[in-house]
Specification:
Number of helices: 13
Number of strands: 17
Structural class: alpha+beta
Helix content: 25-40%
Radius of gyration: 26 Å
Shape: globular
Largest sheet: 5 strands, mixed
Strand content: 15-25%
Order of helices and strands: EHEEHHEHEEHEHEHHHHEHEEHEEEHEEE
Distance between the termini: 26 Å
Length: 414
DNA sequence: TCTGGGGTCCTAGGACCC
DNA sequence: TCTGGGGTCCTAGGACCC
């Protein structure tokens, strides 16, 4: 059995912890630059407020109903998130931190307990220690935990789905739109095929699901049947890409202003790369005009770096070069960002370089590669220097005249 | 030059999540 | 005037090789 512990109206709850007078009052939290609503309290929801509403459209209405408005404060939310996780770790050891306001827990060591009661213990302890209200859903798979949690939020606070009867009754009236893994496209597809509830979806034939919704859809349906297919990830895998992007808050028309913005994003991306001990060979730079008025332009470019690096000056040089290539004079830009891709561990080591047409050197490098390959087995990875971005298993045939090889120093898990 | 099958790698784009 | 900021995974199709 698994549990999903999800904070209620997380950002709004964080703001309320230090201002108890806001209990029972409507609250909204705004995005960066106060662009739009990204969180709301139940009272705000009752007023018809929803995520994604642009601030400028609802400002009068917020004032009229005395809604308390906050600009987002991610430092505060991150801090509360850590406290909630620490509290949960006191209660159970197998925890996956799924997002800033959600944790999954594996309850396999707790089968002898009254799980409903245990769920209430988690809920009460988190509330008492951190001030944040949470809901708990307990079920045989993560997807069913999501269902249980949603039901818990409607009142009981904790919902346990531990028998086929309880699961069936939970799924019977559960709209497909609310299932974890069903977005609006799949919802539309399912509705068009007469599938409206989670129970109907669960009973669809495998081949139909596989054909229409790919293996991810099939996994989801198995999970609804109580067969866990999405494992608990206690140790999050290394990031594959890092994005730093923002709305500018106003229109930018000059190249030098765009360059300034891109340089600051790239600097931050490089910092995060170093924190996570990763290096990159590629960065993607893009910026775009408004989608809401006039023709839409989005310029983007993948810029290769001469070597694997997380060194800020290298990154900035490439960023500026890409920026100049995609900049178009006369447009008004509203948003942009920098993404680093193809991240690999920084301990990946430069091995050697094959020189063009130097057969002797090639042979000696290949011999060394073979040696490494034998040492780490089939899972040893190496990276080609030019043109080819992907990792692949080391093969003797890779005798290209120009490349640099690198590999992960640690043996990889099979 | 044409025929064809099988395989790998890469890219773009779609779909989803919070 | 003003509309978030992160991420992941999967598939189809093209290029290329034997």
């Amino acid at each position: 059995m698994y549990a999903l512990i999800d904070c209620n109206n997380f950002y709004a709850s964080c703001e309320r912890v230090f201002q108890p007078k806001l209990n029972g009052k409507p609250i909204v939290v705004l995005s960066n630059n106060d662009g739009m609503v990204i969180a709301k309290s139940n009272e705000a929801k009752a007023l018809g407020l929803d995520l994604g509403m642009p601030y400028f459209e609802i400002r009068d209405m917020l004032e009229k109903h005395h809604v308390h408005v906050f600009s987002s404060n991610y430092t505060l939310y991150g801090d509360f998130s850590r406290r909630v996780v620490e509290t949960l770790r006191e209660l159970t050891s197998d925890i996956e931190v799924y997002s800033i306001d959600e944790c999954f827990a594996d309850l396999k060591g707790f089968q002898h307990l009254d799980l409903l009661k245990y769920g209430h213990t988690m809920r009460d302890t988190v509330k008492q220690w951190t001030g944040i209200p949470v809901s708990v859903g307990i079920a045989p798979s993560k997807t069913l935990c999501k269902v249980a949690n949603k039901l818990a939020k409607k009142g009981p606070g904790v919902v346990l789905l531990d028998t086929p009867e309880k699961i069936d009754s939970a799924l019977r009236d559960y709209p497909i739109e609310d299932i974890w893994g069903v977005g609006w496209q799949r919802a539309r597809l399912l509705r068009l095929n007469g599938v409206g509830t989670a129970l109907q979806l669960r009973n669809m034939p495998d081949h139909w699901i596989r054909k229409k919704m790919s293996v991810t859809g099939l996994r989801m349906v198995y999970e609804l049947r109580g067969i866990p297919c999405i494992p608990l990830e206690e140790h999050p895998p290394a990031k594959k890409q890092i994005i730093c992007s923002r709305s500018f808050g106003h229109f930018i028309t000059e190249l030098k202003d765009i360059e300034e913005a891109m340089v600051s994003y790239a600097t931050r991306a490089a910092e995060r790369m170093r924190q996570q001990k990763l290096v990159t060979r590629d960065i993607l730079v893009w910026f775009e005009t408004s989608r809401h008025n006039g023709p839409f332009y989005c310029g983007s470019r993948v810029q290769g770096l001469p070597r694997m690096t997380n060194y800020t000056p290298d990154i900035l040089k490439a960023t500026l070069s890409a920026t100049r290539k995609i900049f178009r004079k006369g447009l008004r830009y509203r948003k942009g960002g920098v993404m680093v891709l193809e991240l690999v561990p920084a301990m990946t080591r430069q091995f050697d370089m094959l020189l063009p047409r130097n057969e002797e050197k090639q042979e000696s490098v290949m011999a060394a590669l073979d040696k490494v390959n034998r040492k780490y087995g089939d899972n040893t990875l190496f990276y080609a220097a030019t043109g080819i971005r992907r990792e692949w298993k080391m093969l003797r045939q890779m005798k290209s005249p120009h490349y640099t090889t690198q590999w992960d120093e640690l043996p990889l898990a099979v």
